[in-house]
Amino acid sequence: MPNLLYGDYALEMNAESSGAYQDVYLRENSVYRLHCFMKGRIHMIIRTGDTFYGANFGRSSVVPNTQWRQMQLDFRIEQKGFYEVRLNRDNGGNPSLQNGGVMVHLCTLHRSDQIPSGIGPEKVSPPAKLPRWYPPGIVERGQLFVNPSFEEQRSERTFGWKIDRGYRFRADNALHDYRSLELYSGSRARQKVGLIKGRTYRFRCYMAESCRLSMSVVRLGTRVSESEGERVETIGRGKWGFRQVTFNSIGTQHNFTVEATGSKPCVIDYCSVWRA
């Protein structure tokens, strides 16, 4: 192949959404950089199953005096293990970006303290690592949901939630422990909880940023409470905040639903219900 920056080969991606992946072992409490030279538009993802640890959807820069561009993804790993590195052809809704063909060349993965010169910008920019967050005591002590922060994923019973339509878990933007839940537009998460009839409860979800989120409580087809909107009560932790509804139970089993009803996804964490 002509005009390569190094060696004799590059990977050509001929069909939209085609790509390549590799499983790599990464160390805990470490920052890494994934970097590729490319032509056309691709995206980069670091994940395990449905949990995303970082993604770059097409952000790239020109490599001076060449026909190539470069893109990188700086990400943080908290727990050691194998992670999937995935590269995919992705026109981002603009097919003309791929008119000259799509190629990927000289892809590397380095720990942040071992990045050679010329592999992306000198400054490494992973997501900020904030101090560990704990839910307010009054919420945590009395909360009734199974798996409120979506950490437990060993089985359907221990996960606790039923999710309709598209979603993914986010380790790169979590409030409590290691992951949050991103609901795509039109998706919802549901859980059934037994309450004491006639008591007052509060239903709360934390949100990574303002998005249109519906929170509803239903018993046997009767809507007990509902709140829908974008406004959040801030908690002094970046853009994180919460939405909350207060209601009186009308029986025992109640169904709780959170749904992303706007045009963009909602990233949520630590959803809880407790007696007021």
Brief rundown of the structure:
With 276 residues, the protein is mainly beta. It folds into 2 domains: 11-114, Sandwich (Jelly Rolls); 137-275, Galactose-binding domain-like (Jelly Rolls), CATH 2.60.120.260. It has helices spanning 137-142, 156-159, and strands at residues 11-12, 19-26, 30-39, 42-48, 51-56, 61-62, 69-77, 81-89, 103-111, 162-164, 167-170, 180-183, 188-194, 200-207, 213-219, 222-229, 233-237, 240-248, 253-260, 266-275.
Helix content: under 10%
CATH H-level homologous superfamily name of the largest domain: Galactose-binding domain-like
Average the pLDDT over all residues and give the rounded result: 95
Structural class: mainly beta
Give, in order, the helices and strands: EEEEEEEEEHHEEEEEEEEEEE
> What would CATH call the class of the largest domain?
Mainly Beta
Uncertain spans: none
Please give the domain count. 2
Ends distance: 68 Å
Account of the protein in words:
The structure is a single chain. The protein is mainly beta. It folds into two domains: 11-114, Jelly Rolls; 137-275, Jelly Rolls (Sandwich). The protein is 4% helix and 49% strand. A ten-stranded mixed β-sheet has the order 2-8-4-5-11-12-20-14-18-17. Strands 1-9-3-7-6 form a five-stranded antiparallel β-sheet, with no helix packed on it. The termini are far apart. The mean pLDDT is 95.
